[in-house]
Amino acid sequence: MSANAKRKRIGQDVTTTIAVEEKTQTTQEQVEAKPIAKEEKPADPHAEFYDENGEFLWEAYEGTCPTRNRTPNPHIKTNNGDKVYSREPYAQELYDMMENYGKDIKPVINEGEIHDGIIYAIDRDYITVDISYRELVYVKFGKESAEVQASSVGDETAVLITDTKGTLAGTITGGVKHKTFMDLRDAIDEGRTAWIGTVKSMIDKGGYVVTVQGINCFMPGSLAGINKLSDFSSIVGEEIYVVPVSFSPDRGTIVVSHRKYLQALIPTEIENLKQSIEAEREGLVTGTAKYGVFVEFSKCLTGMIHNNDLDEETLVKFKARDIKPGDPINFKVKDIISNKKITLTQKDVVEINPWINIGQRYQIPSIVEATVKSKKDYGLFITIEDGVTGLLHISEIGEETMSVFNPGDKITVQITRIDEATMKVFLKMPQ
To answer: What's 365's domain CATH number?
Structure first.
C-alpha cells in the first residue's frame, strides 16, 4: 500500500462506497441536465391605484397607506378636530351618524340625582326607566306607591338614583317627590303656577296641611279663601288649587295659598258677570256691618248688599242680627264699580250700570244723537244716554257754534274714544 493511499475506516465496505459514489455522480448529472426556468417579473403592488389613463391616484393611495404619509380625507366635514381617513363614498354619512350618536346620553350618573325618564318596561318585580343613559334604571315594583304601580309603559316620570354600583337602581316615588318639591320652590318666584292639592288636616294654631303630589305644604287659615271661612273644617279632605308663595328654610316647608289662586280668577269672572248681569244669583254671607251684608259668590267675587237693598224678610233678620257667616243668600248685581267693589241688591228693580259693556254698544267712531246737559266756558257736557256724559271741548266745536246750544238741546256728536276704567267719553263734531 502506497503512502498516498487513503486508509479505509473500520467496518467500511468497499462495495457500499462505490455505490454511494455512483449515486452521487448520477444526481449531479440530473441537475446539470434540468433546464433553467425563466425568471418572472414581480406584480406591481400599486396597480389598483392607476386609472384607465395611467394616472396615479394619490388620494386613493394615501387613504390606505399604513405609513406616516397617510392624510385625512379633505372632503369630509368634521367637528372638534376629528379626522376621517376613509375615501369611501359613505364616509360623510357614517361620520354624521357617529357624531350624533350618544350626544344626549348622560356621561356620569351619581347617587342622589333626579333624572327625567320614560318607563321602559313593567313586570311584577321591577319597573325599568330609560333616562337616556347607557343602561336602564331598575326600580323595585313592590316598594313603590300604588300610583306608581298603576303606571304604564311610555309614561314620563322622574326617578331618584339610589345605587350606581352594579345594576343602576332608583325610586320613582322618591324622584317624583323630590322633583315636585324643587318645582314648587322654583314656582315661588313666578307666582303664576297653580297646583292641585288635597287639604289633609287642620293645624291647631291655625292653618292646614295641604298635600301636593306627595309633598306636605303649609297653608295659613288667612290664605284659605278670598274671605275668612265661616267653617274652617269645611275644606278638610277637599281638592283645591294652591299657589306656592314662600319657603321656610328652617322648617323646610313650602307655604301655599288658595287665596292667591282665587284672586287670579277675578278678572275673568268679572267679564262673565257683565255678560249676564241681570241674572239672579246665590252666594254665601261672609259677614255683616251696620250698613249691610257682605256676600261671596262665583268662588272669588265679593259684593255688598246695602241694608236699603235688602228684601223685607232679610231686613228683619239683619236688624235682629240673625244673619250669620255661611248663610246662603239670593241677590242680583246692582253695579260693578271695580274688580274689588261690587254692589248687590235683593230688590226687584235693578238699575243697571250704563258703563257695563258700553264698548259693545258704541263702535268707534260712532255718530250719535245726544243731549246738551250743561254749558261751561270750556265746552259742552253732552249726555249720550242716561248715566253716560262726555265733554265736547270748545276747541272741537268753536265759540260761535257753541253759543247756539243751550242745556236740553239735541246735538249730533261723534264718539272718538271710550275709557271704561275712568268712565270718560271723548267727543268731537262730526265732519
So the answer is: 2.40.50.140
Distance, CA of 399 to CA of 324 (rounded, Å): 61
* Mean pLDDT score, 186-212: 88
Distance CA 244, CA 116 (A): 23
Query: Is 12 part of a structural domain of the chain?
Result: no
When pLDDT is cut at 50, 70 and 90, the band that residue 11 belongs to is very low
| pLDDT score of 206 | 81
- Sorted by sequence, the CB contacts under 8 Å of residue 128 that are 6+ apart come out as 119, 120, 121, 122, 136, 137, 138, 139
C-alpha cell at 132: 337616556
Say how far apart CA 372 and CA 425 lie, in whole Å: 14
Q: Which residues pair with 289 in a beta bridge?
A: 292
* Spatial distance between the Cα atoms of 197 and 234, rounded to a whole number of angstroms: 15
Identify the domain containing residue 127 by its residue range.
114-177
pTM score, whole prediction: 0.53
Do 146 and 124 lie in one domain? The reply is: yes
Point out which residues pair with 201 in neighbouring strands: 209
On whether both 257 and 201 belong to a single domain, the answer is yes
Q: What are the tens digits of pLDDT across the range 141-173? A: 999 988 899 999 999 999 999 999 888 999 999
Q: Is residue 18 pLDDT above 50, yes or no?
A: no
Does residue 335 fall inside a structural domain? yes
Q: Flag the least confident range among 52-66, 86-100, 225-239.
A: 52-66
Considering 55-69, 123-137, 337-351, the range whose residues carry the highest mean pLDDT is: 123-137
By three-state DSSP, how is residue 339 classified? coil
**What mean pLDDT do residues 95-106 have?**
70
Give residue 218's identity as a one-letter amino acid code.
F
From 345, 380, 399, give the residue that closes a domain.
345
Q: Which residue, 360, 415, 366, 368, is CA-closest to 392?
A: 415
Do residues 284 and 330 make contact, with C-beta atoms less than 8 angstroms apart?
Answer: no
Domain co-membership, 383 together with 419: yes
Strand, helix or coil for residue 418: strand
- In angstroms, the CA 275 to CA 262 distance is 20
Kindly state whether residue 36 falls inside one of the protein's structural domains. no
Number of Cβ within a 10 Å radius of residue 234: 13
Mean pLDDT of 232-260: 90
User: For residue 422, is it within any domain?
Assistant: yes
- If one counts the domains in the chain, the total is 5
